[in-house]
Amino acid sequence: MGLIELASSNSFWRGVDYYKSGKVIVWRKNEKDTYSGTVKGSYGKRYDVFVDVEHPRKSKCSCPFAADKRVICKHMLALYFTAEPKALEDYFDEMEEYECQLEEEEERQSIEHKQELLKKAKLMSKSDLIEELVQAWLKIEEYETKRFY
Ligand SMILES: [Zn+2]
Known about the structure:
Blueprint: H1 3-6, H2 9-20, E1 24-29, E2 34-40, E3 46-52, E4 60-61, H3 74-83, H4 85-122, H5 126-148
Antiparallel strand pairs: 1-2, 2-3, 3-4
Helix pairs in contact: 2-3, 3-4
Bound molecules: zinc ion.
């Protein structure tokens, strides 16, 4: 798993925010896929941050949240996104694609459901249909009354 996947969604969005508002003061690329830098925190604090893209758990930050713990904090993410903006873009692209797939799936299911109901209705007698329709109207009225009072 990468840095983004290991972070909590709270840390992720704060990291995006820190990156976009330019909280990374200085940074440099070390050997391999590691970066070091200084990131502005709250209340004028500054934190030393080290990010290891290949081994995210080896990343370090001197902030109280991440110090001595193997967690991914917003400062690490801010540094990571500053150094590799493409990583964030790719992640957003993936998220959007995933949401589109979900939407398509929901759409497909609702069409399927409608077809099932149509099939059921076609098999019913006229008097049963009238009974069902009246029941449905009553339910809708009840629902709307509850909504307004
Ligand atoms: Zn931190």
